[in-house]
Specification:
The chain has 98 residues and is of the alpha+beta class. The chain is 39% helix and 10% strand.
Amino acid sequence: MGNVGDADYIYAFQKVVMPIAYEFNPQLVIGITMSDCVDIVSAGFDAAAGDPIGGCEVTPAGYAHMTHMLMPLAEGKLVLVLEVHSHMMIVERRADIT
């Protein structure tokens, strides 16, 4: 799945995720990144550039853009929770953008 980057993820977010999210019309959006739990909203970083698991190329700017796309939902009530895990250097780069 290499070479899948910001444009690919943002396109899928716009065409698939956001229409479903708007139809669902949530009162609150919760994003949880946890290695061994069921996610309410998958906010993992396996797609991050440099992550050995995902092999994709999503940049901090790409993650920021998708996060900002969620803001109109639930009148801006957005909660993001990040669990510390083994790929800390990649996560630290992503956390700097939020």
